[in-house]
Fold:
Amino acid sequence: MGFFDTILFPIQWVVAWIMYGSHQLFTTLGFEDGPGFAWVLSIVALVVVIRIVLIPLFFKQIKASRGMQMMQPELQAIQKKYKNKKDPSSREAMGRETMELYRKHGTNPMASCLPILLQSPIFFALFRVLYNLRPIADGTQEPIGPIDAAVAGDIEESSLFGAQLSDVFMQTDDWGARITILFLIVAMSATTFFTQRQLTMKNMPKAALEGPMANTQKMMLYVLPLIFLVSGVNFPVGVLIYWTITNLWSMGQQFYTIKRMPAPGSEAERILNEKRAAKAAKKGIVLEEPTEIEPPKPVGQRQQPVRKNRKKKKK
Structure:
C-alpha cells in the first residue's frame, strides 16, 4: 500500500462500506446481484449519504457567503481608504480593519469553501477505491473493507452505457467507452459551471458583483470547469458519475435555498418580492416596497464639526 493509500485508507474503508451496503439494499429491492446497474446506483447513494451528512455545513456555507456579500461595500471602502498607501503601518492597519470586518459579519473567506474542501478527501478516496479494483480482483492487493476479490470483480465489470466504472479515458482503447466518458466529462464540467453561476449571478447583491473579490469569483466561474474538462480524462467513470451527481444535488439545494431565502439586495430577492406583490395584488393587498439599504460610509476619521465664526464685540 502506497503512502497516499495509507493516508486515505480510513475514508476508503467508509466509502467501500457505503457502496457495499447500498448495493445490498438495491439487490433487496429487486436489482440483479453481481455485475450490474446496482453498483452504478451505489455511487449515487454514496453522494446522497455524504450530502445529507454535510447539510449542516451547507447552511453554514450559505450564512458565510451572505456575510461575505453583505460586507462588500464596507470592504471596498477599506480598500479605497488604503489604495495608495504601501507603507507597512498602513498595510497592517488595513489587515486589522479587514479582520475586524470579518468578525463583525461572522464570516471568513474559507467558510464558504468548507463543503467542497471536506468532499475532496471523499473524492480522492473513491478514486483510489475504483483505481484499486483490478489489483484487488487479481488478489495482488488486500481488500478494502467488504470489497474483496469477488466484489471487486463485480464492480469492475459493472458498466454505464458500455463504459466500466473503473475505465479511464486515457487507459482504454474502446471508443464506445471513450464516448461515454467524454459525455460524463462534459456533464461534470457543465454542472460545475452552472452550479457556480447560479450562486454568484442570482444570489448576490449588486455591490458584491463589483471589486477584486467579485472579479476573482467570475474568473473561477470559468477556470474550474476548464480544469475539470482537462483533468477529467484521468478520472475513472465512477468518479465522473460521483462528481456530476454531486453538482446536480448542489444545484437543486441551491435552487431551493435561493428561491426561499434569497440574499438581501440580490436579483433572486427582487424576483421573490415581485411574486409576493403579484399574489398580494390578486387578493387586494398592497405590499410596501422594501427600503433599499444604503451602503455604509467610508471608514475613516470622523469629520469634526466646524464652528461658525463669532463676531468680535466692539469695545
Remarks:
- The CA atoms of residues 44 and 245 lie 7 Å apart.
- The chain has twelve helices and two strands.
- The chain has one domain: 3-71+107-272.
- The two ends are 102 Å apart (CA to CA).
